[in-house]
Amino acid sequence: MKLEIGKILKAQGINGEVKLGVSVDDAALLKGITRAYIDGREYEVKKVRAGGEFAFLLLDGVATRNDAEELRNKTVYADKQQIALKKDRYFVDDLVGCDLVCGDENIGSVVDLLQYGAADVFVCKAADGKEFGFPFLKDVVVDVNVEAKKIYVEAKRFGEVVVYED
Predict the structure, then answer these.
(1) How far is Cα 51 from Cα 28, in angstroms, rounded to an integer?
(2) Per-residue H/E/C for 65-84
């Protein structure tokens, strides 16, 4: 499965390297990628330099500054399995669609994850169609099982932080 990793911002230097504004938490996650996909075309990744919000990619077949400029503003994808996440880190698309379980009760499903500085916020939809949100905090979320598509929350703490739509 392909995952969006960022957007090419500009050419970097004269040898075809591109500067990528990353759409992952940490550009360092991209250091292991060997293939990138742009407009449906596959590129071998010859080199990755990463740090903070940016990564610099050297792609096979992109040899000059002009080649790199042609890729400006293009979205870049990589194979998801090439990106090694740390323990207790998840891809947003793995969390969206998960059932939310409180005790023995399914209380809704995740429809989005909003990323803020202090904490990510789950946006969920209950069976009655009403939306609610809560922060992705360790004392609220007690377990995430991506394979089973289930997220388990601690009832008392969840009740303290959940916000329901009007």
Answers:
(1) 6
(2) HHHHHCCCCCEEEEEHHHCC
156: helix, coil or strand?
helix
Are the beta carbons of 46 and 112 closer than 8 angstroms?
A: no
The secondary structure of 1-31 as a DSSP string is -EEEEEEEEEEETTTTEEEEEE-SS-GGGGG
Give per-residue pLDDT as tens, 75-131. Answer: 999 999 998 888 888 888 899 999 999 999 999 999 999 988 788 999 999 989 999
Edge to edge, the sheet with strand 121-125 lists 141-145, 150-153, 99-102, 105-114, 121-125, 131-135, 163-164
Task: Tell me which CATH homologous superfamily contains domain 92-164.
Answer: PRC-barrel domain (2.30.30.240)
The reported pLDDT for the residue numbered 157 is 96
Fold of 2-82: Elongation Factor Tu (Ef-tu); domain 3 (2.40.30)
Average pLDDT, the chain: 93
Which H or E element spans position 41? Answer: strand 41-51
pTM passes above 0.90: no
Closest CA to 147 of 97, 113, 110: 97
Would you state the structure tokens that stand for residue 49, as one six-digit string?
A: 């330099």
